[in-house]
Design brief:
Chain A has 602 residues and is mainly α. Helix content of chain A is 70%, strand content 2%. Helices cover 24% and strands 37% of the residues of chain B. Classes of the chains: A mainly alpha (602), B alpha+beta (347).
């Protein structure tokens, strides 16, 4: 049908122009400077699989008391990124499985509370959570050594730094993503399948081993790959730990710092190559899991089944309380710590924040709202959020309709392409946009100086930020609408067409009213992810610098404040509190009003 | 007032699945044509082609003398009632029914009052007066079906297309509603194509039946013709209950043949048969009369099925099912069975 063809064309045009073309441009940059790329990449700084790499990975420093130093091996930028991300994914899937299993399969007092606590770390407070972990791990004044040495009187201290610290931060940050995906996979298994196994004589262990696990393995694999992609793309944790040179030896940090170098005029094909490696690893992992689990349930809001549950014995209960609650508490600690930064007078040389009071929080919030720059940041964030959401909804409806209502390779490819941005690092998108727009406007300047000015990324980065956000977060909107479309029988549209309506009429009178909850859920989740986005915000967002007409959103201000020192940290946390408020409102709305679950769910 | 004519109509999906294969069919003005066949035989695809919801791979669709083959569904003036009914849950009964009229408001110069009047009339026709303000989910299955029918009828389509419209209803309601559908279609004299897999429904509703299998039209005719004079083995066994016996032709002349199926049997046939040729013989249970002359059989079982008794007979080693108003004998007793009518088909 003509409308489907137009929808497909719109989807391809949008993604082709704003996703594929800029990425191809990176590839072209690499090819153009292949000689320099080869020279750089053979440097051990990038790949260093020698025994020396493990020299400082783990050792005991002869202090009084002795200090156990854990830094992790330094295998060079590329291999470091891989081992850190793989470790984070493995740890999170293991811990996430324990949590998800306990919550999905057992009935015990406190289950609701545990479930509620488990979703707390879903709230994103960029940089702040990583900063709190840095405070906890601080070798001199950190909470960890205070507990180990001063409270428990253990005869040693612990120093976790460099890549090991980054891995810990990321494990805590992404645990809820693993947990949610695995929980969804476990609850999706039809309970009657397990009951039949029980009925035939299988006890809980056997039924889970033979029925539940095989059926939920795709969910486990999806969780692993999703956490892996998020970890390898994360730049917030390396930035917070950048005082340690080892923490900078990650692909994401290198792409980020080379982006900043480019702003100073140092165009480097090596940066493009690193971006390409990051892109390749992420996309390859994504494609692997897509083939395995099928894309249909990707990143969508789900309605869950009530899984078959068991009542644990006394030993089981002890294990649940002894393992799950501390695990949840640990995962929630960074966010709780970050929030206390707003209420604390200070947190510098003490193991815990000092002098918490409501007055402190009120004074900081007042400061934020009185500071015209911060206000500008809040306005920017809302403006980008609303603009990107409108684009996402318009393009998302077109793509979802095209993918759900037509068959064939063109629809399948569009569906895959629309979900692909989940796997494409924000840094790579930022880098690609910057390079492409710079080259384009330079070429345009001769022919149309006014248009070139308008499209200049250094003068008007807002344009690229909004498009970049909408491309990156598009999958969440598409999947939400797509899921709704799957619930609507095509005959609903066909009857309207048959009675004489055109497709735009069908869209307006039939589909949009029927899909309004899905559109609203998708829009809300897209809006929240845009407002808390980091990679584009701290790269394209800073192109215009800090000033009255700055284009920086809240997250870019947060990074800038975290780097500026003592009170900057608390200002950043206060800005983070505003983001938290937006997220909590969205979560409440999606779960209570729209009756859907919130979060990344494969 | 429309005659629907399908000429060599063919639909192939993905270059490999032949859903409709060279179908020629004429539905006369005001006629109800049932398209009957098993699941997957292509009957729904045929209906969708007529509605313009699928494009044919080849062939033509004519409404009277107008070629509508490439006309979009909006411009065909057909009205579909899908199996799911597809009632829009966000609209009331009134809005569902008025939808098509509102789209025609400008073209047909309809006022809101005129729309209201016509919706009221059609709701009265399907016996739904008073339910205009309800949402579809507040109605029973039968009422929902009537709303779907009213929505199709209100636009006064040239051709009414019903795709298993009663499949989601319980057996008793199906019987009631099929009579009503026929009554309404006849009263309005709308050319109707009624797709179903239920042979009894097809016979009850239709003026003529088109039997389909594997995308091909097997036979078209009045219900009596389809039942009493099946064109091939598929139609004979798909429509009505039947016994199938493998046999050999002893003698053949025109449409008549003497066949040995273990015992001698006179059969009609649409084929030219030769003596010695192997054939499948179809015998309807109600055409076996027990107690007269004929072949000697032993009663194996007698079952009461409400309207009739079903008797299982063993005759010269062959098992036959017969039906009759009374139990003919007790199991184990020997009886004589006369086979009044049989058809022989080439295997």
């Amino acid at each position: 049908m003509r409308f489907i063809r137009w929808s497909t064309a719109l989807g391809y045009a949008f993604l082709g122009l704003f996703l594929v073309l800029p990425l191809v441009f990176i590839f072209w940059q690499v090819l153009a400077g292949i000689g320099e790329v080869y020279t750089s990449i053979t440097d051990p700084f990038y790949i260093n699989p020698s025994p020396d790499a493990f020299a400082n990975a783990f050792f005991i420093r002869p202090t009084d008391p002795p200090t156990v130093v854990i830094r992790g091996p330094d295998l060079g930028v590329v291999l470091n990124s891989l081992w850190v991300a793989l470790t984070v994914a493995a740890v999170d899937v293991a811990l996430g499985f324990v949590l998800a299993y306990v919550l999905a399969k057992y009935v015990f007092p406190g289950r609701t509370l545990l479930g509620l606590l488990a979703t707390i770390p879903l709230i994103v407070m960029p940089f702040a959570t990583a900063y709190v972990v840095r405070k906890i791990l601080d070798p001199r004044w950190g909470t960890l050594n205070w507990i180990l040495h001063d409270v428990l009187n253990l005869p040693f201290k612990v120093e976790i730094s460099g890549l090991a610290a980054v891995a810990i931060v990321q494990s805590l940050m992404y645990l809820p993503i693993a947990y949610l995906n695995i929980y969804a996979a476990l609850t999706r298994v039809d309970p009657t399948l397990e009951e039949v196994a029980n009925n035939l004589g299988a006890d809980e262990r056997k039924a889970v081993r033979d029925v539940v696990l095989p059926l939920s393995t795709p969910g486990l694999a999806a969780a692993f790959v999703l956490v892996f992609i998020f970890a390898i793309d994360d730049v917030a944790a390396p930035i917070i730990f950048q005082d340690d040179p080892a923490a900078r030896k990650l692909l994401s940090y290198q792409v980020y710092s080379k982006f900043l170098d480019q702003l100073r005029g140092q165009i480097s094909p090596t940066a493009a190559f690193l971006a390409l490696i990051l892109l390749t690893i992420s996309v390859a992992s994504f494609l692997a899991v897509r083939k395995y689990v099928g894309l249909r349930q990707y990143a969508m809001l789900i309605r869950q089944l009530r899984p078959k549950s068991y009542t644990p014995g006394p030993l089981g209960k002890v294990l649940i309380y002894a393992l799950s609650f501390p695990l949840i508490a640990t995962a929630a600690a960074p966010l709780i710590g970050a929030l206390t930064l707003v209420f604390a007078d200070r947190w510098t040389t003490t193991p815990l924040p000092e002098a918490l009071s409501l007055q402190n929080a009120a004074a900081r919030l007042a400061e934020v709202f009185q500071n015209p720059l911060f206000l500008r940041g809040v306005v920017n964030t809302m403006y980008y959020g609303v603009a990107a959401t409108l684009i996402m909804v318009a393009v998302g409806i077109a793509i979802a309709v095209a993918a759900a209502r037509s068959k064939g390779p063109a629809a399948d490819a569009l569906d895959a392409l629309a979900t692909m941005p989940i796997a494409i690092p924000g840094l790579v998108v930022a880098y690609a946009y910057f390079l492409t727009s710079l080259q384009f406007t330079t070429a345009l300047r001769g022919a149309s100086p006014d248009l070139a000015d308008l499209l200049d990324p250094l003068r008007h980065p807002e344009l690229y930020l909004i498009i970049g956000y909408s491309v990156r977060k598009l999958p969440f909107v598409v999947r939400s609408i797509y899921a709704g479309l799957q619930q609507i029988h095509p005959s609903m549209e066909e009857v309207a067409l048959n009675l004489g309506d055109g497709y735009t009429g069908v869209l307006r009178r039939i589909l949009i009213p029927l899909l309004k909850n899905n559109i609203l859920s998708g829009a809300l989740i897209g809006f929240v992810y845009v407002t808390s986005e980091v990679s584009l915000s701290i790269t394209l967002g800073v192109l215009k610098g800090v000033g009255q007409d700055t284009a920086m959103p809240i997250t870019a201000f947060m990074r800038e404040r975290f780097e500026s020192g003592l009170y900057g940290v608390q200002e950043a946390a206060t800005l983070g509190l505003l983001l938290v408020a937006i997220q909590v409102a969205a979560i409440t709305l999606t779960t209570r009003v729209l009756k859907t679950r919130y979060g990344f769910v494969l | 007032m429309t005659v629907v004519r399908l000429e060599k109509l063919r639909k192939v999906f993905d270059n490999k699945v032949v859903a409709v294969d060279d179908v020629d069919l004429v539905v006369n003005d005001g006629e109800i044509m049932a398209v009957l066949g098993p699941s997957g035989c292509g009957k729904t695809t045929l209906l969708r082609l007529v509605a313009g919801l699928e494009d044919p791979t080849s062939g033509r669709i004519l409404f009277d003398d107008r070629d509508v083959t490439r006309l979009p569904t909006q411009e065909r003036n057909t009205a579909v009632v899908p199996q799911t009914w597809a009632l829009w849950p966000h609209m009331t009964v009134f809005d569902n029914v008025a939808y098509g009229l509102r789209l025609r408001r400008k073209k047909a110069n309809l006022t809101e009052e005129e729309i209201r009047r016509r919706v009221r009339e059609v709701l009265e026709l399907v016996d739904l007066t008073g339910l205009e303000g309800r949402r579809p989910f507040q109605l029973s299955g039968g009422q929902q079906q009537r709303v779907a029918l009213a929505r199709a009828l209100v636009v006064q389509p040239e051709v009414l297309l019903l795709d298993e419209p009663l499949a989601n209803l319980d057996a008793k309601l199906r019987v009631e509603l099929r009579e009503e559908v026929r009554k309404i279609a006849k009263r309005l004299s709308i050319t109707t194509i009624y797709v179903t897999h239920d042979q009894e429904e097809a016979m009850a509703v239709a003026d003529r039946i088109a039997v389909m299998n594997a995308g091909r039209l097997q036979q078209m005719g009045r219900p009596e013709e389809i039942y009493h004079k099946p064109a091939n083995f598929f139609v004979a066994t798909f429509v009505g209950r039947s016994n199938v016996l493998r046999g050999r032709v002893v003698e053949a002349k025109g449409e008549a043949a003497a066949v040995d199926v273990g015992f001698p049997l006179a059969a009609q046939t649409p084929h030219r048969l030769a003596p010695g040729e192997e054939v499948d013989v179809v015998v309807r249970p109600e055409d076996i009369f027990i107690g007269g002359g004929g072949v000697k059989c032993v009663v194996e079982d007698v079952v009461f099925l409400g309207r009739y008794y079903q008797t299982t007979l063993r005759c010269s080693g062959k098992v036959l099912k017969a039906e009759g108003p009374r139990p003919p004998a007790q199991p184990g007793e020997e009886v004589a069975a006369e086979i009044a009518r049989a058809w022989a088909f080439k295997p």
